[in-house]
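User: For my dataset I need records formatted as: sequence, then structure tokens, nothing else. Please produce one.
Assistant:
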Amino acid sequence: MSAKQIAFLFPGQGSQKLGMGADLAKAFPIAKATFEEANQILGLSISQLAWEGPEDELNDTANTQPALMVHSVAALRLLTDQFPQLNPSAVAGHSMGELSALVAAGALPFADALRLVRTRGELMKQAGQDSPGGMAAILGLGIPDVENLCASSSSEDEVVQVANDNCPGQVVISGHRAAVDRAVANAKEAGAKRALPLAVSIAAHSPLMLSIETEFMAAVEAAPITDPRIPIVGNVQASTLQSAQAIREDLNAQLNARVRWTESVQAMLAMGIDTFIEIGSGSVLLNLVKRIDRASTRIALGNPEDFNQAAELLAA
């Protein structure tokens, strides 16, 4: 397998599940050590939250985001240890997964990335408390139609906008609860197959995140981000981030800008990538990649079975 064909992908919020990373840590010392390191860095047992819950605490965004990163980095370290010949030509992460991608690209040490993602989760939780909002998945409409739906459902004081362009026919919207509710109610008339409110109180990737912008930008500025060793395909512009400054700008803008995942995958395909490896919890991103390009090779690496099944292909 040519390294020029590979991209590492890192999942974001919504991919978490109780028990994530437990089997990996039990089977491989390098994964266990990563969780133990994270517990020390954060001053709390993120491993216990990830493995045993309670589930409602794991689903608290202040915990979800670091837990997902730790699982991803544990799997990444194991991958690097077992298959040192794998050198991806790009990395990318969905929303908070972009911070995990920074670790893979050598742009931010794990400890600093983990502290930053914990801060991100805490601030987003605060924003959700200060300005409660909502999100919904719109299925069966293209981006222009969803943009029109959002525009017609927004008012001067209540805004809803595209939050995630996940793949063709799957778009997530975000904003003030009343505006989101109007969009859901109007979606079928606009031609949507389904409109599903999400069980969240945080309006991620919307103007409701502006209340935490100053604090988060300060945290990003303080983080020791360096130029990446591997190109990172950023969420906001769906293009490669080749400098520390570009990374900072993308992380800051990402709070209230859409995640351009469809375009990000298309950008990686244009780079010649045909093999996508999702590192961490689940295979949400691989399912999206499949909807964008069915010809691609897709490998999930999050538990021991994944590594066993992928061993022959990765060793080739």
